[in-house]
Amino acid sequence: MRFTKDRMLIMALIATPFLLDLLFLWNNESLTEGFKHAEKRLSLLLLPVCLLSQTHRFNTARVLRYYAWLSTFILVVCLLRFAWIEPELFLKYLSGKNLWEMGYTFANSTGNHAPALNMHTAFVVVINFYFLKEKAQNAKIRSVVLPLLFFIASVILLFYINTRLAIANAFFGIILVSLYQKARLFDLNVLKKLGLGVLIFGVLGIGFIKMFPYSIQKFSSVTFAHTDKVGKLDELENPEETVFNGLVTRLSIWQSAFEVVKQHPFIGVGAADGKQELIRYFKTTDQQFLAKYEFPVHNQYLDFWIKFGVLGLITSLMYVGLFLYFGIKTRQVLCVFFFVLFASANTVDDFLIRFDGIVFSGLWLCFFAQAYVLDRESRKRGLEEKTYF
């Protein structure tokens, strides 16, 4: 293990959400609860200390490939298991019934939250396309078969879980990977790779819509329904059925969260009390639907602003922005895509309060950052070392 000033600075930057917990421990009503929240983010200190202190270069490309293939295989097994343990429900979906809960029920059967699972799946789809694109440069058809099968399987899984933002992100990621490192946008090879990805994605998407036509409603009328009821959800006859996962519900939560922020803009209310403060505001303003289900903020930037004040907002933006910085510096397109994925996902959810989101981001951030650290040290020594991207 090797520790230098540069390495320790990057370790500290990655660990900033955990360091915030320690810095604002005094601001929690219960010190014990404050430590519990810090414990969840402790991995953001342990991961960089263990991984960024290594002197050998990780083969990040190989790690990503095996991660994507293994994740795809596990999810395919989970989908087959779901069809086996819930045959009536599965057949209902195939016949076009109860489609609004399809992805959520499948995700719950694996012990996961659908938006979190589909964020992982969107990343897997783009990784699979990245390696399919690499293999497509090989003239041998045999070398393309396996990456193509994994890509198709991961796209099917993405559509089955069917969260809107993840599907949009995966589509953007395919375009980003296709155009990566190409100065000429209309280069024939670029268009071939882009066309392959978009064609497969589009054909599977059209096929999915034919089987599950509710998807068109979900992406259009359902998403933008009742936007005139922001902050007035109780006026709806049955908000549980009509807007439980709708945009109007998130807008109502954000409106309330911003009002809480204005009450404590500089030092926040503490990590352990942020959600309770928001629920208290729901009750004070007589928003019974939001208070009944005790919704969290569903926006990581607002969540950290409520808990840690303006320093929390800056930290959350900086932490997510590290992916873009390391991606540009090391020319790792998958790191740049992870920035797009994680930044947008945290706009409509709060993944730095979930252990899976914390470890998911922290692990990949360390892998991408290690390439930056070693490249920087190599340049200082005047050496050229092989990168794996």
TrEMBL record:
Chief location bin: membrane
Keywords annotated in UniProt: Ligase, Membrane, Transmembrane, Transmembrane helix
Annotated GO MF terms: ligase activity
A Pfam family assignment: Wzy_C
KW Ligase (keyword) present: yes
Transmembrane segments: 66-85, 114-132, 144-161, 167-183, 195-216, 304-326, 333-352, 358-374
Keyword Coiled coil: no
Membrane topology category: Multi-pass membrane protein
InterPro entries documented for this protein: O-antigen_ligase-rel_domated (IPR007016), WaaL-like (IPR051533)
Tree of life domain: Bacteria
Subcellular locations according to the entry: Membrane
Location of the O-antigen ligase-related domain: 150-314
Protein name (database record): O-antigen ligase family protein
